Write the structure tokens for this entry.
Amino acid sequence: MIRMFAIVEREMRKFFRSPMLMIMSLMMPILQLIIMGNAFGGKIVGEKVAVVDYDHGPQAVRLREAFDSIAVNIKTFTTVEYTDEVQAREDVRTGKINAAVIIPKQYSRRVYAQDAPVIGLVVDDSDQFSSGSIEAEMQSVVTALTTPVIQPRMANQIALEIVELYPYVNYLKYLLPACCAMAMYISVMIGGGMLYIDDKARGVHEGYLVTPITKLELVFGINTAAAIKAVLSGICLTVIGSLIAGLGVVFHPMADLELLAMIIVTAIAFNGMMFLLMVRVDDPLTPRAMFGVLNLLLFYPSGAMYPIAAFPPWLRALSVIDPFTYCVDGFKSILLKDGGFVSIQYDLLFLFVFGIGTLLIATPLFKRTL
Amino acid sequence: MTAPAIEVVHIVKRYGDFEAVKDVSFSVAEGEIFGLLGPNGAGKSTLIRMMTTLIPLTAGKAIVAGHDVAKEADAVRHMIGVIPQALTSDPDLTVEENLSIYAKLYSVPKAERIQNIAEVLEAVDLSKWRGAQVKTLSGGMRRRVEIARGLVHNPRIFFLDEPTTGLDPVSRIAVWEMLSNLRAKRNLTILITTHYMDEADKLCDRIAIVDHGKLVALGTPLELKHSVPGANVVEVHFDRETPEWQDRLEGLEGVTSVQAESEGFYRVLTSSGSKTTMQLVELAASLGETLTSLSVQNTTLDDVFVHYTGRQLRDEQVKPPVFTLPPRPGMQP
């Protein structure tokens, strides 16, 4: 055991002497959290919508008052007066404005006569987010205008009552579990993969191999050290990220225990996977070249950015064997849902079995000689 | 008679069809400094790696400190200290931390570890630097750290692969002195590989010359030099080259071999340096040629290497790049 701990001691001393690994493993996920968390998931405001009013009747005025109300309250869009429908459509196409509402002649009369009144909406659907947002606001306006002022005493339509279990989860919070996983992945990639191959190339392993250290002591020493580094990165990112995202869950001791369990098994799983990938690699360029590809293959199919339910079957199959999937799911369960150990038990089990399994496969592949 | 510290018997290493080490046998006595001399790629490092359990033998047997490296690798590892060619001490760690970690890899108990570290640091004259990070040390000092690291568990046999490569002449001499002192004080058996003739000559009790994986000569430096016909080497430089010089020089009395070094420059092995020198001067005068330099030396290991391999060791070390300028447009052929 003293020999295994000598390997761990060496790795940890190097780690603390050169804090660049810790900084780099935290830098990208934190920036990702801040930039992507704020860039995505925010409400769309300040769009320009042309209003072409051919009616000028009381119902058209009512409609335009509703638009003004949106402009000063929710601020999704402001309106611009147009007199020509063709010009408005052209300006939507060229991007001068984002949408155009056409109020046709006889609109007010048709509303009063209940004769299928129609309002036209021209949107730039090359931008699904903006057009979707404008469409949703327009739909809410139309629904509000259609609803009778005096409601019937007995509701005659099916109503859906939505109960939200958790407080509003903005994208910043939604992204935090993925960033925790990313920080640990980067730490394992640099602290486990790259340093392992660099040490091999520098001849450090040759120095180990001439000592009486056993193969198991060497494998477990190297992997324990890499896993400890990943755990430290995971803890740092979880705490810093939670504070940035405004999640107070890190102040609950039980949640902290659950997070620690998730971080430890994730470190074991990621490290086992990395060791298996690197165990026979000698070229220091290989892990650097693999970094981006692995990131793509592991991060995006995990449901970190988009729900797995929306994936095609082949991508869903990839997500089933992807340790990131279970890591992200586990972190979401704790950070966003406060689901307790019950909600993460399968994630913990998968990650633990995956980590030990990959290590068991990698160990016989590790050569005790050059 | 005591058993040899190292005994290598018909050792072979093959990588596919390529035979890196070809049927090499030798033994190293207890307390001896033994050198494996040869150019880069001769198989020295492969030999040392087989003896230190780093790579398996294809055939043959290697006994180190009484243990078979193939069957009792762990016992061998306890007995040996190994310094690889590359500097592998951690630059971010201090000298003492580097040594302590390696002592732990050999399971040296704490009290003994502390004592050993102090002793080896004293032996390599780095006691003052024990708390310094290795990256702050000079190349020579870093090599001394490596040597200390290899000795921290008190090995019986010490393997050093090209220990002075990359060091300046002063540091090289310091390393030689240190190794000689360590051998004397600790009764160490030392096996070093080198491609430096002077290093092998001054440091080693016996030398094995290795070329293309084969052991081509073995003996003390003196024995090896005496094994070469001709007691002296005359180096002569004529002011111009003519095709006849080679034959004329070979025809001189006592000359055993003539080697053209460069244009007009020859190394002449002779049984009598003084007689050949006189003859050379007379020959040049009779032909109306001018000698730009003339020197007489005793036979060196370089000559030994040339004698046994048919080429110079330094040719293998520094291969001048073959570079030809492309013809310019309009240039005369």
Observations:
- The first helix of chain A runs from residue 2 to 17.
